[in-house]
Structure formats: structure tokens, C-alpha cells
Write a structure and sequence with these properties.
The protein has 883 residues and is α+β, with helices and mostly antiparallel strands. It is built from 20 helices and 39 strands. It starts with 7 loop residues before the first helix and ends with a strand.
Length: 883
């Protein structure tokens, strides 16, 4: 067995816990206090009755050696005062912090020490187990007040040999973040203190399949083949509890813990795992370690030998995460053997509490920390270290990926998850993996499942999962046709997002920018940013507004109230999944979407880079690549371009070669980087040669979203060697139909050689198409299930055909219509008020609809409406269709 000294990967991690002496005030000559000014907005406070202080790394604070900022000190006999340009700390030396009055004044408010953490914008929680809607959240480092506080007095420590340590009882230790609304600055300081988010491997960003079910090897293979037939790519295969022996003799206790393959289900585990690997899948298996290693386990004798454990009476080897010798055997005998068979990483499903025999040592912390560090030995397979476990507290972001636990399958659970995911970034925790579709109980709903998958598509990790129940499974083909198609569409789109998501993973790790951010991170000076907790940024430009409630019966649409942030240039927003809709910025609006759509809003001047979709190859290339699972990188890229303003995007891909293959964080300069820029004035899209790129050829599919201007399909180049790929007649017809349907212009371009800058002319000062109010209203009004007669009145009010009054008056009349569901009014008003460029638009008028029915009788007059075929039946005017 490897000894500690032979296992540096598990007991060595980057840290620098001792602060610069120039940043320290107190802590000498019998002082019972010590303050460390880490930055001009971050300070550490300590109190110790014995006058000694803690310099070991804690689970929260790994790096304390900052460049000392400028600050002033007044150290009088009875009081010490520290001042930076952001805060003033005052401590009266009469006693402990409570007695002596430790306080920090910042932004016109004062925090007084109370021994508690504080951050009223919330952080995250250990788990969503048994959640049926909202649960309490632990504090983060962001607050509506000018300050937030993380008390670190009870956290686990690490000694200089990388092993766990305990606190001295009674000492006070914590951090005040005095950032006064500067969210990103606070998070940057938090990462500087606690360590950055690790880079995720590319494959982790695709689709994970998981189900608590007694799969046989044959059944699991058939499942993977079925996904192939559906052309839905998977990247991770998750095996829940039943991979190991569960039905064990009663004398051994529960079957939750196990490390021996169930040979009835998996007769040849290495062969099965190798089959999954050949399919391109990584494999993780579930582990509930609480019951230790018992005599029925295949590796019981080997582990016992390593530990000198007496096996004569089949005594169990107890799980003890505070025993370093046990942990070495656990990793280097037990788990190493299973990893050698083909298990790539571990799903730690710890549910047995937060206590050990050492005070302040939480077993979840120990498991997360050492599993992550030990996974470095599998870097050849994983590419990057990885574990999969619950959140243990501040600092847990260093051990991705988070498993959020077992939620109920209800609309209430779905409704809380967007906020829960976004708010986790307030404590730096950027990679939650939820049970998409919910875990247990609740109801079966095709609609809810689709909305959950849409949320999963725009979540950090997309992992389908369900508990053990014959009626409960998440295979897309198990749902009704409309839901099946929608689920498939978003799972396929998630895979196409991998280049974008990997770029965002680099941005998260190197630039301190989590993938998902609440709206107030970028717009905290506007109160509206706090009013939409379920709306979030997905990367630097995209705004996702998930629909988390059932469709309305009248409109067949789900709805959600969105806030569109203003900009200095009044940029409009377009919905990537409904590009016929363009919205003015700087206001609230209720968005309505059919089951196959989720609002994903991009402002003018946006570029995102995706994998080229499968449909493209079949219409444009003679020999399309064969469908495969996994996340193997393709050289071809699909650019979505939103015109209307200048735009840029840096596509970042894995280093082609590394000097040190075991480097967890290779230099930022070693990544392959391709800069894509759009000049609005010149109408030119520029793609620079990829830095460090060795690809000889790369095909680009350029989609100008929401633009049908013929110039976008006009002259191609400004001096390059590119040529357009011209698909056959059927392919051209397919692309033409797709462009019309998706309200976009597609350009298919091939580049060779790769080392030239490409400049593509698309048309000077291209603008998003103006929303056609008549077309959009007719489209939705026809489908609405409601009385027929009011439809004609609605039409006349929107178009002004045969209706007196200006737009504002007609808007008010629409709001007051009787016998018209409020949902229909809101849907019409969304279209009418979306785009201030549209003829006869209602932009600028209040668009909220009161839910109270009005007291006016509405009269239906015979009307002659321009542009419509109408017919009078018994004195009623009936709208047939537009000419």
C-alpha cells in the first residue's frame, strides 16, 4: 500500500495561509486581538484568550498572503482603529469582541461583531434533499448592506503535511467583506482568499445519464444504443447504488455501503466499463461510505491486511475519516483497485451527518477534499481532477462538481432551482448538478419535464436522474410526442453548447467569473435587478429567464415576467429561440413561450460559438461524420451572431500540448484561442487565426440571428482564401426553409489554410428585423382558446383598423376587455409593446394587466378590417384569415 509520503497528490495542494507581516495589526506582546488587512475591502479579525493565533489553512481560507493595501492605524491604549479608503474598523481593547465592541463602518452603516455570518443575498445550502420548493440558504459574501461577514471560527484546518487539523476552542476568526455593492469585486477577493474554481474537463459539460435502477450490463448497453438511435449524445454514465452488492446477509447490516460489483447484474465489470469507454462515456459510481468495509466485500482481506485488522471474526473495518491510515487504505487499496477496472470518478453520496470524533471535522469536507486531490492520479482518463458530492460550506467550490440531492418532482421544486443555482455564485459555488426532472414523489407531467430539461440545458451541469420507481424514468422517448421532441431538442442543443461552456469554464477558473450570475452582479445599482431572482446571466451576454409554471390553457404558453436591463446605447434584445421577437431594453415585460421554447435573450452585439449541429452535415457535406457519444472536439464551429452593435467573443479550447500533462491549471496562454469580432459599421465579421491551433482546416457555420436582410447573404469576403461550401440542391432547399423558419440567415464557410485571418462581409450596419406586429398577433390570436367574438375586437384594437383612439387609448381598452383571459391580454401586449420600431407599437405604455375583470360591457360591432377576409353571420363579424 502507498504510504502518505508516496501519495503527494492527496496531501499536497496549493496554499499560502500565512499573511504578509506588513498587513497585520496586533497579535504580539500579549495582544488578544489580531487584524489582517488583506485588501482595502477585506479584513480578517481574530481574538484569542491565550494570545496565540491561527496561521494554518482552513477549509475557507487557503491563501492569506496578499499584497498589503494602503491603510492607516491608530493604536491607542484602549482602542485600535484601522482605516482604508473603503472601511474603518474600531476595536475597544476592554475584552472579547462582544465585550470590547468590534465594529466595522462602511458605506454609512456599521457592523458590530455578533459571532454570526451575514450575507443577506444568500449563498447556497448543503443539499436539496427532500426539498419541495424553497429552502433556507446559508450566507454568501454579497449583501444588500455595504458589508457581509463569514465567520470561520469552527471550520476544519489543514496542517503543514496536508492532513486535517482542529481548532482551539474559544478563539474568534472571521472575515468582513466591505464591498458596498461591488459584487464582482467581493467575489474576486473571496476567490483570492479561498482559491479559484478548478477548470472542468470538456466532457463534464455534456449530458449525464443517471437513474436509481437495477440495471444489468445488457440493459445499460441497450439504453446507450437507444440514445444513439435517437441521436442524443451522452458524455457521462452514472451508476447508482445497485452497481454493488445491496442484498447482503442481515448480519452485515445495511446494503447502502458497498464496494463489490453485483455480478448478477454485471458479470464482467472491466469489460462493461471498457464498452462504455469505447462509446466515449466517462463513468462514475455511487458511494455511501458510512458503514465502512465489511467481511462480504471482495477487497475486505486486502484492506484488512493494509490496516493490520483482525479478520478472524469478520469484524467490520469502520469508516473513520479522521484516521489517516484508514483513509490511505480506503483510497490506495479499495478504490484504486476499482478505478483500475475502469471507474473514472466517484459520486460521494454522504448523508450521515456532519460530526466525527474530532471537533469541527465534518466527514463531508474530508471526503470532498481528499477525493478531489486523489482523482489527480486518473488525469490521463479524466483530463482534470473531479469529484461529485454535496456542498460542505464556504470553500467547497474547489471540489467540483456539486450534487444537490433528492428533490420532489413538483413545480415548486422547479420554481426554486434557478434562484438556488444563481445565488450559489454568491459564495463562489459555480458548478451545481441537479436531478433534472426532480428525484422522487410528486407527479408525472410531460410539461414540467420539458421545462426542467430547458433549465438543465442552461444550468452548470445537465444530469437526468430519478429514484427507484418502475413508473419513474427520464428517457426522452418515454414522454408524449411533443414533449419527446422538445426534450431531445434541448439535450442536443446542450451538447452543441460545449465549446461555449468550456470557454466559460476557463473564464470561471482564470477570470473569477462563474458561468451563472444573478442579475444584480452587473446591475446592482438598479433596484429592478433584485426583483427577478429566477433570471440570470449565462456567461457575459446571455440572459436566461426559465419558465417554471404550467402553460396557460388559453394561450398554450408558459409565461414569465422578465426585466430587460437598460444600456447606455439602448441596445435591444432578441430571443435566440424565438428570433422573430425583439425587445426594447430598460423595462419589465411578460414573456410567453410555447413548450418548445425557453427565453434566452441576447443583446445586440452578441457572439456565441457552438458545435456545428448534426443537421448541417447531412445537408452540406458529402460524408457526414458518424454519430458518437462523448465530447471529442470537432474542428467545426457554429457562430451565432446578433447584429446591431459591435461584438466580440474569444473561443477558448484545450491546450493542444502541455509541458506538464499533470498540470491542473496550465498557463492561460497555453490554451487555443480564436478571436471572433463583428464590426457593425463595416458589416464585417473577422475570425483571427487560432493561437496555438494546429487544425489545418476548420469549417464555420455563420448564423446571423433575426436578420433576413438579403445583404447578409451577399458578397462574401474582403480578401481571404475562404470559399463557400455549396450543398446540393436538396441541401440548399433545406437551408433556405430553415432560414425562413428560424428568421435567420445562414452562411456556410470553409477555410484553408488555417493560418489566415478571415474577414466576411455581411452588410454594413445590419439591423435586427423589426417585429411584425400583425403577423405575430395573428399567429398567436388564432391559436388562443377563448370566445371567438372578442378576437375580432382585439385585432382591431392592435391594428387600429376601424378603431378610434391613439395607441395608448387602445392599450387601455384592451386591458379592460371582458370575456378575454388576462393571459391572452398579456400575450398580445408582449407583442404589441416589444419593439419600438414596429409600426403602431405600444412600446412605452404600461403593459401590465390587472387580474380584476372590468365593469364595462364590450360591444361587438360589424367591422370592415383592412387586410382581412371577414364574414357577417347573424350580425356578428367573424375573422377568417389575413389576405
Amino acid at each position: 500500500m502507498d504510504s502518505i509520503s508516496d501519495s503527494p497528490e492527496r496531501y499536497s495542494f496549493p496554499s499560502c495561509p500565512v499573511a504578509d507581516a506588513k498587513a497585520v495589526v496586533g497579535g504580539a506582546d500579549g495582544d488578544k486581538f489580531r487584524f489582517t488587512v488583506l485588501t482595502e475591502r477585506l479584513i480578517r479579525y481574530e481574538w484569542s484568550n491565550d494570545g496565540t493565533f491561527e496561521d494554518r489553512a482552513s477549509t475557507l481560507a487557503v491563501f492569506r498572503k496578499f499584497e498589503p493595501p494602503k491603510f492607516e492605524v491608530e493604536d491607542a491604549k484602549d482602542k485600535v482603529t484601522l482605516t482604508t479608503k473603503a472601511f474603518t474598523l474600531t476595536y475597544r481593547k476592554a475584552g472579547s469582541f462582544e465585550d470590547g465592541g468590534l465594529s466595522v463602518h462602511v458605506g454609512g452603516e456599521t457592523w458590530k461583531y455578533d459571532g454570526e455570518s451575514y450575507g443577506d443575498l444568500g449563498g447556497t445550502a448543503r443539499t436539496l434533499d427532500n426539498a419541495d420548493g424553497r429552502i433556507p440558504l446559508e450566507p454568501g459574501v454579497l449583501s444588500r448592506k455595504p458589508y457581509s461577514v463569514l465567520d470561520d471560527s469552527k471550520s476544519m484546518l489543514f496542517d503543514d503535511k496536508g492532513w486535517i487539523g482542529t481548532r482551539v476552542d474559544g478563539r474568534k476568526d472571521g472575515y468582513v467583506f466591505a464591498h458596498n455593492g461591488h459584487c464582482k469585486s467581493a467575489i474576486k477577493d473571496f476567490y483570492s482568499l479561498s482559491g479559484r474554481q478548478p477548470l472542468l474537463p470538456r466532457w463534464a459539460l455534456g449530458n449525464w445519464w443517471s437513474r436509481y435502477h437495477e440495471y444489468t450490463a445488457h440493459e445499460y448497453k441497450e439504453l446507450v444504443r437507444h440514445f444513439e438511435q435517437e441521436e442524443i449524445p451522452l458524455t457521462v454514465a452514472v451508476l447508482d447504488m445497485d452497481w454493488h452488492k445491496v442484498k447482503i446477509p442481515a448480519k452485515y447490516g445495511s446494503g447502502w455501503t458497498g464496494y463489490s460489483w453485483n455480478r448478477d447484474l454485471f458479470p464482467n465489470p472491466p469489460k462493461f466499463l471498457e464498452w462504455l469507454r469505447r462509446k466515449g462515456l466517462k463513468v462514475t459510481v455511487n458511494d455511501h461510505p458510512a458503514d465502512g468495509i465489511r467481511a462480504f466485500e471482495d477487497l475486505y482481506e486486502e484492506v484488512a491486511k493494509a490496516l493490520g485488522h483482525d479478520t478472524s471474526k469478520e469484524a467490520p473495518i469502520p469508516f473513520d475519516c479522521t484516521d489517516r491510515k484508514f483513509m490511505d487504505a480506503y483510497f490506495d487499496v479499495l478504490k484504486k483497485k476499482l478505478e483500475d477496472e475502469g471507474i473514472d470518478f466517484w459520486w460521494m453520496d454522504w448523508q450521515q451527518g456532519d460530526k466525527t470524533k474530532l471537533p469541527g471535522v465534518d466527514p463531508l469536507w474530508v471526503l470532498n477534499h481528499y477525493h478531489y486531490l486523489t482523482s489527480k492520479r486518473n488525469m490521463a482518463r479524466l483530463d482534470k481532477p473531479l469529484t461529485f458530492s454535496r456542498y460542505a460550506g464556504p470553500g467547497s467550490h474547489r471540489y467540483p462538481i456539486g450534487f444537490s440531492g433528492d428533490t420532489y418532482i413538483t413545480w415548486e421544486s422547479l420554481k426554486f432551482q434557478p434562484e438556488f443555482t444563481a445565488t450559489a455564485s454568491n459564495i463562489g459555488y459555480g458548478w451545481w448538478s441537479h436531478d433534472i426532472g426532480g428525484h422522487m414523489f410528486g407527479i408525472r407531467s410531460n410539461e414540467m419535464m420539458v421545462r426542467w430539461v430547458q433549465l438543465g440545458c442552461f444550468s452548470p451541469i445537465l444530469r437526468l436522474h430519478a429514484t427507484k420507481d418502475v413508473w419513474l424514468s427520464k428517457e426522452p422517448w418515454m414522454y408524449e410526442d411533443q414533449a419527446h421532441k422538445a426534450i431531445k431538442h434541448f439535450l442536443v442543443f446542450r451538447h452543441q453548447l460545449i465549446p461555449y461552456l468550456f470557454t466559460m469554464s476557463v473564464r470561471a477558473s482564470y477570470d473569477n467569473e462563474p458561468l451563472i450570475q444573478p442579475m444584480y452582479w452587473s446591475h446592482g445599482d438598479q433596484e429592478e435587478s433584485h426583483s427577478v431572482p429566477n433570471q440570470y446571466y449565462f456567461g457575459p451576454r446571455l440572459i436566461v429567464v426559465p419558465i417554471t409554471s404550467p402553460n396557460d390553457k388559453a394561450t398554450f404558453s408558459g409565461s414569465v415576467k422578465a426585466w430587460l436591463p437598460p444600456s447606455d446605447t439602448n441596445r435591444r434584445y432578441i430571443d435566440l429561440f424565438k428570433p422573430t421577437m425583439v425587445y426594447d431594453s430598460g423595462r419589465y415585460i411578460t414573456l410567453h413561450r410555447s413548450l418548445d421554447q425557453i427565453p434566452v435573450l441576447a443583446p445586440e452585439g452578441t457572439i456565441i460559438a457552438l458545435e456545428v449541429p448534426e443537421w448541417f452535415y447531412f445537408c452540406a457535406v458529402d460524408h457526414p461524420p458518424k454519430f458518437r457519444h462523448g465530447a471529442a472536439k470537432r474542428p467545426d464551429i457554429h457562430i451565432k451572431l446578433v447584429v446591431g452593435a459591435d461584438a466580440s467573443f474569444e473561443l477558448v479550447e484545450e491546450p493542444v500540448a502541455q509541458d506538464d500533462a499533470d498540470d491542473v491549471h496550465p498557463p492561460r496562454s497555453s490554451f487555443v484561442s480564436t478571436f471572433i469580432k463583428w464590426s457593425q459599421k463595416e458589416g464585417k465579421l473577422t475570425i483571427t487565426p487560432g493561437r496555438n491551433d494546429i487544425n489545418k482546416e476548420r469549417l464555420w457555420l455563420v448564423e446571423v440571428v433575426g436578420v433576413t436582410d438579403p445583404r447578409a447573404a451577399g458578397p462574401l469576403f474582403y480578401g481571404s482564401t475562404w470559399h463557400e461550401v455549396r450543398p446540393g440542391k436538396a441541401g440548399r432547399e433545406f437551408l433556405s426553409a430553415k432560414a425562413r423558419r428560424e428568421n435567420s440567415t445562414f452562411r456556410i464557410l470553409d477555410q484553408s489554410p488555417r493560418n489566415l485571418e478571415v474577414n466576411i462581409g455581411l452588410g454594413k450596419d445590419l439591423q435586427l428585423d423589426v417585429v411584425d406586429i400583425r403577423d405575430r398577433v395573428e399567429e398567436v390570436l388564432y391559436r388562443c382558446e377563448m370566445e371567438y367574438r372578442p378576437k375580432t375586437t382585439i385585432w382591431s384594437l392592435v391594428t387600429g383598423d376601424g378603431e378610434d383612439g391613439d395607441v395608448g387609448e387602445r392599450v387601455e381598452k384592451l386591458k379592460k376587455l371582458e370575456k378575454v383571459p388576462a393571459s391572452v391580454k398579456e400575450l398580445i401586449l408582449e407583442i404589441w409593446g416589444a419593439d419600438g420600431r414596429s409600426e403602431g407599437n405600444a412600446a412605452g405604455f404600461p403593459l401590465d394587466v390587472d387580474q380584476v375583470q372590468e365593469d364595462e360591457e364590450e360591444e361587438y360591432d360589424d367591422l370592415t378590417l383592412e387586410g382581412l377576409t371577414v364574414r357577417s353571420v347573424d350580425g356578428d363579424t367573424v375573422l377568417i384569415h389575413r389576405k
